[in-house]
Amino acid sequence: MFNEVNRLFATKLKKILRLELHNEDRINLYCVGEYWAAFDKSAYMLERLVPDADPPMVLNVKGYPFPLVMYNVYYRTIDEMCYRCAMARRNLEYIQFLTTPIDDTSYNLWYDQILANETDEDDEDDDHLS
Known about the structure:
Layout: H1 2-21, E1 26-32, E2 35-39, H2 40-49, E3 57-59, E4 68-74, H3 75-81, E5 87-90, E6 94-98, H4 104-129
Antiparallel strand pairs: 1-2, 1-6, 2-4, 3-4, 5-6
């Protein structure tokens, strides 16, 4: 999956960052192999709709000053979402769903918690190496 994410970032990172900067009501999904990936605010909204997928991942992207949160769901999960969510755009590599607007305070709390969990896991890994 990470090879696909790297290819996606090589061609669309600036567009992804621009879309997420002011995103309030759209889940932007990108095909990465057998998964669909959402980033930052889209990841937050997707996790609210599909809370039982794998936990969010924190990515440190070269040339970007802040960690990027990625949330992945299997391809089949998104096919099921197509029947219950309003879709704005769809092609083979990109889907955009419409959703209710998010509260920036809730998003910021979620983002901070994801980063804190990542830091805690890194500290635990360091403890095991000693």
